[in-house]
UniProtKB/TrEMBL annotation:
The chain crosses the membrane at residues 268-289. It comes from the Bacteria. Residues 409-421 have a biased composition (Low complexity). This is DUF4350 domain-containing protein. Residues 47-243 form the DUF4350 domain. It comes from Variovorax gossypii. Pfam families: DUF4350.
Length: 421
């Protein structure tokens, strides 16, 4: 026997031992995994009950509110906790029942303000607990840790109910039902001096699980509510019990009102008052804009580089009043000399006639007129003074326009600011 066969035999033995260990160490059991609801059943908790009643030949109608009442002789399965949000609904519901309607409600709605005034039902007292026997209590058995968190039994909420002989049986097959529903402490019986109920179902301890009483020409049925839901309807006899409670008959109409579904308030408000909303929002936006903080313009405004006429007149008059006309002429001549010194080469070294000729050549003015205007010793009357000042200022401005701007001294700036334009 070569090494290859040895390896094969050892491998088979190892696999066999592992298989035996898995069989002895594990336990296989069936587990029910609920299938998630889909389609209409995912959105409608009463889809199963409605489908069942349709199969029985009933006309099923789903409504989102109780704004309108069902037709006469119809069945109304009412489960909405907010059905009584409007005061007039209780009166309308009572009139509909008294005219022949059949109302089916859960026990928790009976105590509502709009129902308890006219329903001939009173809360049933809970039966007293049996007296404990005067025997020494047995010692408690210690629960293993592995069993403390086990899930409750599958049908722990199921119990038997029976139709008493005093009421007609719902089905020919018997009077007992196995019902799986939520436990409720709200149990009701007919009020004093009221006729006996039309139908009841009692539990093992004599408690009333469901009851139907007459109101006018119609009926009101109170029953446990959890069995109507999709996950409970197919359990035990819940479907039969629900059909008995709703008095299922082929061709009858049954309405389901299980919740109050309203149009969103903002959408409803927009559809009915959009004009007022638009005006209000515009007014609010305008008020916020008026109350907002101002941060100034996007760019600084350009400053004015020239004085106004009023400022020029006031400045010239003040200078003349303080220093006289000769001082004004001297200031204007000094401003012209400063401009010529910057613009004309060799201006400082020339005599008065050469300076006037150079300025005349640069500005296009007459040389003789400039000589007369630049002569500070010549006597002048008011008219001649005005003409000479205008000639000097015109020459200065033309010189400044022909070359780049250069800052003037404080003396020339002061004299130029006071000169007339």
């Amino acid at each position: 026997m070569n090494n290859t066969w040895v390896v094969r035999i050892v491998s088979v033995l190892v696999v066999a031992l592992v298989g035996l260990w898995l069989v002895s160490a594990t336990e296989w059991a069936d587990t029910e995994v609920p299938t998630p609801a889909s389609g209409e059943a995912k959105k409608n908790r009463f889809y199963g009950a409605q489908a069942m009643l349709r199969e029985l030949g009933m006309n099923v109608v789903k409504r989102e509110s109780l704004d309108t009442m069902p037709p006469a002789q119809a069945r109304l399965v009412l489960a909405s906790s907010y059905w009584d949000m409007f005061p007039e609904r209780g009166k309308r519901l009572r009139e509909w029942v008294e005219q022949g309607g059949h109302l089916v409600i859960p026990a928790y709605l009976v105590s509502g303000e709009q129902l308890e005034d006219w329903l001939p039902l009173v809360r049933e007292k809970q039966p007293a607990a049996d007296e404990k026997k005067k025997t020494p209590p047995e010692p408690k058995k210690k629960t293993p840790a592995s069993r403390r968190f086990d899930p409750p039994p599958k049908d722990a909420d199921c119990h038997a109910v029976t139709e008493p002989d005093s009421v007609p049986a719902s089905f020919a097959g018997g009077r007992s039902f196995r019902v799986c529903a939520w436990w409720s402490s709200s149990r009701y019986k007919p009020a004093d001096k009221q006729p006996p109920p039309l139908w009841t179902a009692v539990g093992a301890r004599g408690t009333t699980e469901a009851i139907r009483v007459r109101v006018g020409r119609g009926t009101v049925t109170v029953m446990p509510w959890g069995l109507w839901h999709n996950e409970n309807l197919v359990r035990a006899d819940n479907a039969l019990f629900a059909a008995a409670a709703v008095q299922a008959r082929s061709g009858a109409e049954v309405w389901f009102v299980v919740e109050e579904t309203r149009e969103p308030f903002m959408l409803w408000l927009w559809q009915r008052g959009w004009v007022a909303l638009v005006v209000g929002m515009l007014a609010l936006a305008f008020a916020l804009w008026r109350a907002a903080v101002r941060f100034g313009p996007l760019a600084p405004s350009a400053g004015t580089h020239r004085r106004s006429m009023a400022e020029q007149v006031r400045g010239t008059a003040g200078f003349l009043h303080m220093h006289g006309a000769d001082a004004l002429h001297a200031a204007q001549l000094r401003a012209l000399n400063e401009s010529a010194r910057r613009q004309l080469r060799g201006y400082v070294h020339r005599d008065a006639a050469a300076r006037a000729a150079a300025i005349a050549q640069a500005t296009g003015l007459e040389a003789a007129m400039l000589v007369r205007a630049m002569d500070g010793a010549r006597p002048r009357h008011a008219g001649a003074m005005a003409v000479d000042l205008e000639v000097l200022e015109t020459a200065r401005r033309r010189l400044d326009a022909n070359g780049p701007f250069m800052p003037r001294s404080s003396a020339s700036s002061s004299s130029s600011a006071q000169s007339t334009s």
